[in-house]
Every structure is written in C-alpha cells, then in structure tokens.
UniProtKB/TrEMBL annotation:
Residues 7-41 form the HIT-type domain. Keywords: Metal-binding, Zinc, Zinc-finger. The keyword Cell inner membrane does not apply. One of its GO terms (molecular function) is zinc ion binding. InterPro entries: Znf_HIT, ZNHIT2. It comes from Bison bison bison (North American plains bison). This is Zinc finger HIT domain-containing protein 2. SUPFAM superfamilies: HIT/MYND zinc finger-like. It holds the Pfam family zf-HIT.
Length: 267
C-alpha cells in the first residue's frame, strides 16, 4: 500500500511519509511518536488499554487477611500512588511484555514511592503529586498517558465497573501487581533487589485485602483523585499560557541575549 502522503505531525521541514492510519479517525501518521502526538485518539487508546487489561481479571484477596489490630487511616492514601504508577507503567510497556519484566518493575517501583520506598502519604493529592513529581523530574521514561492521564486512570480504576462492583478494577490491578512482582523476584539475582520486590509484593497483597474489606472508601478516594487531576490540569494550562506569552515576547523559545545597558568608554 502506498503512503498516504507526508505525515502532518512531524516537525516542520522533517515530514516523513505517512505509512499508517489511525483506526479511530483515519488520520495518516508516520511513527509511534507522531501517533502519540496526534491528540485525543492516542490518549483514548492508552486509557482504554489500561482498563482493558483489568476487565475480566480477578484477584484472591482472601489469601491474606488483615490483622485484627486497628489499621492506620493513612493506608487508603497509598492506593492512588500505587495505581498511578501501575497505569503509567502498564501504558508505557503496552501491558507488560515478559521480556521487559525487569524494566517494568524498575519503573513501577521508581514511580511509586509507596511500593519502592515504603513511603506513607497523608492525602490522595500528596500521593499523586509524589508520583507525578518523579515523572516530571525525568527520573523515569515518560509514558503516553502523561502525569494528568495517569491521575485520571487512578480515579477510573478506583471507580471500578460501577456501584455494584466498584472494587473490581482495584482488586484486579493489585492482584496483577502482586503476581508480576512475584515473577520478577524469582528472576532477580541481587539479594537487595529480591528483598525490595518481596516487600513491594507484600504491600500489594496487604492493599488487596484492605480494598476487599473497605470498598466504601474507594469513592471518596476516586473523587480526591479527580480533584487532584483537575488542579494539576489547571496549573499546567496556566504554565503553558505563561510560557506562550514569554515566547511571544522573546520572539522564540529562548530569551534574547542580555544587552549591555551602560558601556564604559575607553580612557
């Protein structure tokens, strides 16, 4: 099949032949980079991919019962951090290829402080911002969802399939994480890495059981995530608007060179 013409998403002067067509809107593009850049279709594709991975999956929360002692009220705020990292990593690695298991877990534990560093958060917003900061700092590969998309997916997972089975997606995500971390631990060689994966897996199992017993806490968490997503979106739009004004003032993406206001005359 002949290319449909030049790709409309390549940088100016660098257009490549558009060899592919978006299955949603039929717009031609040349590469994965341009597909990701072409707008809402790509965003919706990766969003659907996350929930698509969870539909039909089940977990076994009864395998690990919560202790009879009182559970910390901060436990619930670890979920948004874990689910943000899960959504980001799942979209980044297209569902998790077994050959990329080590990279998948490294990214997951790097983005989720709750899993990778046993961090504790005092609010859903703090939990999401901590994960978002890791991505925005460039410490791990950026994903197709972006920070706002991962926040939104955390909220969608917490909402589940609806009031009748709200915990389904969260249980499926945590169950998938526990299994993935278990497989990665079997492959790991370094004792430190095996221990880190073990602790992360136990954390997922604990959250799995907590979620199973506290389904009524998921709706408030989802609303908190949605609120954080909106606030993050507004802040990003304000930064983008300010950046645009500065670039217009400068006449380009960089500020002009500093000019000497007072020049000393030679003696």
């Amino acid at each position: 099949m002949e290319p449909a013409g030049p790709c409309g998403f390549c940088p100016t002067g660098e257009a490549q032949p558009a060899r592919y067509t978006c299955p949603r809107c039929n717009v031609p593009y040349c590469s994965l980079r341009c597909y990701r850049a072409h707008g809402s279709c790509a965003e919706e594709f990766y969003r659907d991919q996350v929930l698509g991975e969870l539909r039909g999956r089940s977990a076994s929360p009864s395998r690990l019962a919560l202790s009879r002692g009182r559970t910390s009220p901060l436990v619930r705020f670890q979920l948004p951090n874990v689910l943000f990292a899960y959504a980001h990593t799942l979209a980044l690695y297209h569902g998790g290829d077994e050959a990329l298991l080590s990279d998948f877990c490294a990214t997951l534990l790097g983005v989720s402080g709750a899993l990778g560093a046993q961090q504790v958060f005092a609010s859903a917003e703090e939990a999401l911002q901590a994960a978002a900061h890791v991505l925005e700092a460039g410490e791990h590969p950026p994903g197709p969802l972006g920070t706002r998309g991962a926040m939104r997916e955390a909220a969608r997972i917490l909402l589940g399939e609806g009031p009748a089975n709200q915990k389904s997606y969260t249980l499926a995500a945590l169950g998938d994480l526990a299994q993935t971390l278990g497989r990665a631990r079997k492959q790991a060689v370094a004792p430190e890495e095996r221990d880190r994966l073990y602790r992360a897996r136990k954390k997922c199992q604990f959250l799995l059981s907590w979620t199973n017993e506290n389904e009524d806490a998921l709706t408030p968490l989802a609303l908190d995530c949605a609120t954080a997503h909106r606030a993050h979106t507004v802040a990003a739009e304000e930064v983008a608007a300010l950046t645009g004004e500065l670039e217009q003032l400068w006449g380009g993406p960089l500020p002009p060179a500093r000019r000497t206001l007072i020049e000393e005359l030679p003696g």
